[in-house]
Amino acid sequence: MKTKILLAGMCLSLAACESMDLVPKSQGNTESWYTSETELRMAANDFYILGYWQEPLSSSEQWSDNTTYRQTNRNPGSGGTVLDGTMNGQQYEVYALWQQSFKLIARANTMLENIHKAKGVVTEEVYNRYAGEAYFCRACKYAELVFFYGDVPYQDETITISEALQRGRKPKAEVLPLVYADFDKAIAGLPESYGKEENIHPTKGAALAMKARFALYMEDYEVAAKAAKACMDLKLYSLEPDYAKLFKQSTKLNDEKVFVLPRSIESEVMLDAWIVKNGLPRNAGGYGSYNPSWDLLASYLCTDGLPIDESQLFDPRNPFKNRDPRCTMTIVEFNTEHCGFEYDPSPAAKTVMNYTTGKAQSNQDTRIVNQYSSYTGLLWKKGIDATWAVDQKVEQDYIIMRYADVLLIYAEAMIEQNLIDDSVLKAVNMVRARAYGVDVTATDSYPAVTATGQAELRRAVRIERRMEFAMENQRLQDLMRWKLAGKALNGYNYIMLINPTELLNNVVNKNLWFWGMTPQIDDDGLADFAALFNAGYCSQGAKRIFPEREYLWPLPTHDVELCPNLLPNNPGY
Predict the structure, then answer these.
(1) 328, exposed or middle or buried, with CB in 10 Å at 0-12, 13-18, 19+?
(2) Cys bridge to 206: 259, 260, 367, 378, which one at CB 3.0-4.6 A?
């Protein structure tokens, strides 16, 4: 296929961390291509190269208040400047998202310009389906570009680089209806479902759900609510009863997964090795260095539905007790088995149980034994189990959209319109009840949301999203669209006392482990650890800096330099 990419910077070859090679490698490269169903399928398969979808947003959790990496805002091999206040157009995240998005847009345009060759050869249903896939992909990529960059160059046809350069940036207000139109064409053309062998392809429900997400991000709440409700009304999706099971690599096709890209060890398409190593505890052969933040641990409500600073059930000495079940399904609870070993980050625990051998062994997950173990004392559990440690090859699905998100998008969009009714409360409570393993009607078994005021429900949904989607690369986007990134991401990470002997003497031996006192939670659900720090119970880690300008990212430097008059950068860069 001939693809003429939009800008010179987009033409640079970028080797994605992972390639989606679950489909035949053959592809057409002649003018006669796109003339049969086989050729259309092969061309469409190339839309789902994993790099087009995960670069770089599968790392965005690292740029939020949900995570920490030792005492820095970066991981080895990353520019790491999203939270350093020095973001610029040469940063990997900036040009990777721009480049990969436009590469997929070019593929979609090529399909749409050539699919007419299949008319009369394939059925109308097949024709509409593959055109729908192209519209879907183009809409999804422009949705991301608009969210992060604002005004963007827009192309809906295959053009030369010089022609594209003359177009410059199209105002966001003019791009929005074009994106909605593409989603609508996808919705009209895509089938409701496929056979199991084609589970990587988007469906009508996926198009409705992604349109709803984009509209929510754009604050088009009426559009978002209608699209989410239409997806719900298909009656094709449901919540997986077991929240923890949903994220395991053994869980493949599932009624909650609306749009995913699968990985496959057999096809050598696996989770990035850095994520695997840092997700595994050190006792199981990992690094355990990319960790949940104290901010995240503090955000989970107690089982009475109250935040930790308001609930009589919260015990700072046992922070996992009496918490929303998603807390211990997302973060490893102390003194429980994880990946074959007891997990105990206390400096008093120099040995732990190896459940495979049945014997105690040296505890590599406490900093008094291994200085590079978790600086927060926390490890990720969501989706991580002993299968990760077998050969550290993991084929966990890359989930882009799931039904819980559709429900919460619907609820939030209705709340923002102040159209609050039973359907809104039910949508939120379905997600919360699932976490407790009960039906939504069993209100005596979980803390159902009952508020009807807009402000109270807005806060409830925002907290619900954080508990539900931790480690799913949505937190940064949520903070940005709620205009809370400046508040949440300016300040310090808080971690355990860096010196493990000092931690032992000043906290553990004084019966103050894990937290010396309860952190306070503000009206936006954000935790304040200043009192613990001032009392000498913890250390400050990296300082996060999120300037106001970063609500929009800079354009890639290379492209701005090529055409400075037509591609002016965003303010502040």
Answers:
(1) middle
(2) 259
